[in-house]
Amino acid sequence: MNAFLESQAASHDAMAIFQPLLQVQRVSLEYRTAQRVVRATHEVSFEVDPGDRFVLLGPSGCGKSTLLKAVAGFIRPHDGEIRLDGQTVREPGPDRIVVFQEFDQLPPWKTVKQNVIFPLLATGSLKRREAEQRALHYLNKVGLAGFADAYPHTLSGGMKARVAIARALAMQPKILLMDEPFAALDALTRRKMQEELLELWQEVKFTLLFVTHSIEEALVVGNRILLLSPHPGRVRAEINSHSFDLHSSGDTSFQRTAQRIHRLLFEEQTDGVTSNVATPSAVAPDISAAVEPAVDSQNKARRA
Ligand SMILES: Nc1ncnc2c1ncn2[C@@H]1O[C@H](COP(=O)(O)OP(=O)(O)OP(=O)(O)O)[C@@H](O)[C@H]1O
After folding, report:
1. So where are the chain's domains?
2. pLDDT confidence bin for 302, thresholds 50/70/90
3. What gap in Å lies between CA 174 and CA 96, rounded to an integer?
4. What is the mean pLDDT of residues 245-271?
5. Which of 140, 175, 234, 246 is deepest in the core (most CB within 10 A)?
6. Nearest Cα residue to atom 11 of ligand 1
7. How confident is the model over 217-222, as a mean pLDDT?
8. What spacing in Å lies between the alpha carbon of 273 and ligand 1's midpoint?
9. Can you give the pTM of this predicted structure?
10. What is the largest CA-CA distance in the chain?
């Protein structure tokens, strides 16, 4: 290859490296019912880079789940555009797998292994033998290799959550979408699942878009958090939370950031909207947290 072509290829590679994986650009989402039009989000923009653990956080009804569904391709934006790897999202695809809170999404008549294998075969991406190997590989990663032949009703809530995660990761999606996946679990199991999710991320380095209304969970799970205002959701701020993990929840900086987020979310409540954002049990009185006022300026700065 001559020098010109080499430099062209190098600059193309550099662009590919620095292009965000997911671009949500001024996206407004609406539901149309027989009686009225409900605007769920208004001109929301954010970008997710490969390997990010990006959290959508906001009060009930601010459109977090609707945004996730739009990224999954189940809902088309009324305005704006969603791009994955540079391609406009128009429909669901195997490059975006959703894990919901309801783990009864696992068909009860299939064993754990069959549950993981089924989508691999349904999309035609693998032959049965390869699908079986892939399923066992990911079941092993979530510590369930010994339960491959068990049926879902014999598993605990946490184990069902692990099967759902293994099934999603086995598809090797470009981005894993999780909608309050641990909300139905008891506090101890929820914490354990957060820990396991972070360990899995360390191993597999998948890209995650995670919805929660718990400030503490957002700070633990995410490396970046997008705060949304009450209904209809608008971008309130983006917060860099990469320095926190499960062991930092007692730290002063963690508590200060939690307090800052709490204020940012509650400042929006001048219209009497009630928030159900869950706050940590203890918070420090004041803050100087790494809160960025606008997502666009932060994204530019990150890539500069
Ligand atoms: N199928 C639907 N038809 C009409 N309106 C809907 C529908 N689904 C959601 N909405 C409305 O869209 C808005 C956003 O809902 P969404 O479920 O995305 O919020 P959320 O932030 O995920 O809330 P929560 O944390 O309570 O799950 C709400 O006002 C909700 O009432």
Report:
1. 19-95+174-303, 103-172
2. very low
3. 6
4. 82
5. 175
6. 40
7. 95
8. 14
9. 0.84
10. 65
CA–CA distance, 256 with 78 (Å, rounded to integer):
37
pLDDT tens-digit series, residues 111-137 = 999 999 999 999 887 899 999 999 999
C-alpha to C-alpha distance for 61 and 26, rounded to whole angstroms: 19
- What tokens does 303 get? 């890539």
The alpha carbon of 189 and the centre of ligand 1 are apart by a number of angstroms equal to: 27
Higher pLDDT, 59 or 19: 59
Nearest residue (CA) to ligand 1, atom 7: 31
Residue with the nearest Cα to atom 2 of ligand 1? 31
Query: Average pLDDT over the chain, rounded to whole?
Result: 84
Q: Which of 30, 38, 41, 55 to mutate to test the pocket of ligand 1 (most atoms within 8 A of CB)?
A: 38
∠ CA 202-196-112, nearest 5°, is: 115
Cα–ligand 1 centroid distance for 61 (angstroms): 5
Residue type, 85: D
Handedness of CA 243, 246, 247, 250 (dihedral sign): positive
Token readout for 284 is: 């420090």
Distance 72 CA to ligand 1 centre (A): 16
